[in-house]
Design brief:
It is a single chain. The chain is an alpha/beta fold. The chain is built from seven helices and six strands. α7 (163-170) links the parallel β5 (151-153) and β6 (179-181). The radius of gyration is 19 Å and the shape is globular.
């Protein structure tokens, strides 16, 4: 579990935690506000704090959907607002969930899904069936080598024995410019 810390001065500058009550991911919201106010992030590769699990922890009151929605809005505000188009890397469950969660304006920016799964690529497109648009939006699905950056990557790292990371490396892209991880 990542842990982060800051000076008291910065804490007050950012504006403290949102104490909105049970179910509010106050640490995530504070972290996003920290980034929006120009705060940085530095990695420390040692254990600084040990958390103890207990069933009454407030973290259990925060719904996964609440965190997902905050993450999507942050992605839209901080990244997608400056892009005119992009590709979602993953034509599977997570990629489609991200697409469906985007605002209509950002859905229109999605030029394609890319993947390595032959079945998805052979099918050639994803139809957004829940859309109220007529005709239903159909987004092309292509092999990652045929896709155009920038990418929002919805693939978890370290799950493919290095295959995904090797595929990404072959494209010689720069993280934070040509792609962002969203997983």
């Amino acid at each position: 579990m990542p842990t982060w810390f800051c000076s008291r001065e910065w804490f007050f500058h950012v504006g403290r935690f949102d104490e909105g009550g049970k179910g509010v991911p106050e640490d995530l919201l504070f972290f996003y506000e920290h980034l929006q106010k120009g705060g940085g992030v530095f990695r420390v590769n040692c254990c600084l704090l040990l958390y103890r699990y207990h069933p009454q922890a407030a973290t259990h009151s925060v719904l996964e959907e609440t965190i997902w929605n905050h993450r999507v809005r942050f992605l839209e505000d901080r990244v997608l607002s400056s892009w005119t188009s992009f590709t979602i890397w993953n034509a599977g469950k997570q990629g489609k969930k991200l697409y469906r969660s985007l605002s209509p304006a950002n859905q229109k920016k999605v030029t394609a899904f890319c993947d390595v799964d032959g079945k998805k690529i052979t099918k050639g497109f994803y139809t957004y069936e829940e859309s109220e648009e007529r005709p239903k939006p159909k987004i092309p699905v292509c092999h990652f080598r045929d896709a155009t950056p920038p990418f929002i990557i919805c693939v978890k790292l370290d799950l493919t024995g290095g295959a995904f990371e090797a595929n990404l490396a072959t494209l010689n892209l720069k993280e934070g410019m040509d792609y962002y991880h969203f997983n």
